Amino acid sequence: MTDSSEISPSAHPAYGTLRSVTSAAGVVLAENPSGMTLDGTNSWVLRAPGQRGCVVVDPGPDHAHHLDRLAEQGPVELILLTHHHLDHSEAARTFSERTGAPVRALDPQLSLGAEGLGPDEAVGAAGLDIRVVATPGHTTDSLCFVVDGDGSVLTGDTVLGRGTTVLGDHHGALGDYLASLDRLAALPAGTTLLPGHGPDLGDAPQIARDYLAHREQRLGQVREALRRLGGSATPRQVVEIVYADVDESLWPAADISVAAQLEYLREHG
């Protein structure tokens, strides 16, 4: 695999092939584009230079041709999941049965043939040391994976290659998410961001700081909407003001994020 400096994010999207991104990471893009998945789900293939075996992160949808492409990348030693959403995890069981590789995720119920992952756990496979970072917010079970020695971090849906992520509907989602962004912002400068959707990006800590600034801006807009609407305003009423410039087909997802913001403001002001 080539160095990320030789691969432009403009190479995304590239269906039907493994696209090298860093010395240890390449991506096979699933053909499941939608308003929520952008160009599709990025299934990441990780291995140290010179290694035959690989780790597959988020095998994605259970599409036979997509799993064929992943299986062609070499012996699969381990399957990791960033979170439970089906566009990332649906194929995990099928792909595990096909390759014999165990599946590991934060939720033990998603794990197959191995224990669930622990926050801050170090995973060794395919010649790599992969560090687990708990990053709840999008979901309670969201994880990022730092590939030590490669200068990269796989962010699942916590940080995307384009646009912003939808917050989960669990209690404390926004507070969790802001803390998760703080963890990513503390990574070394220049860490390559390998997202679950969209193109890879060059500086994960700066992007996390940009996300934090965007969330603060949104909170300001929600505060202003509440001043206009009153404290008992519903999420949809706020969405109609704050997300007026967003396609209405995306408003149901915005409802969830606004509900999390309203909860946060009511608890933190």
Give an account of the 3D structure.
With 269 residues, the protein is an alpha/beta fold. 32% of the residues lie in helices and 18% in strands. Helix 5 packs across helix 6. The longest helix has 26 residues. The radius of gyration is 19 Å and the shape is elongated.
List the SSEs and their pairings.
Blueprint: E1 19-20, E2 25-29, E3 42-46, E4 54-57, H1 64-71, E5 76-80, H2 86-89, H3 92-99, E6 103-104, E7 122-125, E8 128-134, E9 143-148, E10 152-156, H4 173-185, E11 192-195, H5 204-229, H6 235-242, H7 251-268
Parallel strand pairs: 4-5, 5-6, 10-11
Antiparallel strand pairs: 1-2, 2-3, 3-4, 7-8, 8-9, 9-10
Poorly predicted ranges: 1-8
Question: Which range does the strand content fall in?
Answer: 15-25%
Identify the overall geometry: elongated
Please give the number of β-strands. 11
What class would the helix/strand composition place it in? alpha/beta
Rg for CA atoms: 19 Å
Give me the strand/helix succession: EEEEHEHHEEEEEHEHHH
- Strands in their spatial order, largest beta sheet: 1-2-3-4-5-6
- Characterize the largest beta sheet: strand count, sense, and whether it forms a barrel: 6 strands, mixed
Instruction: Name the quaternary structure.
Output: single chain
Q: Give the termini separation.
A: 48 Å
Query: What share of the residues lie within helices?
Result: 25-40%
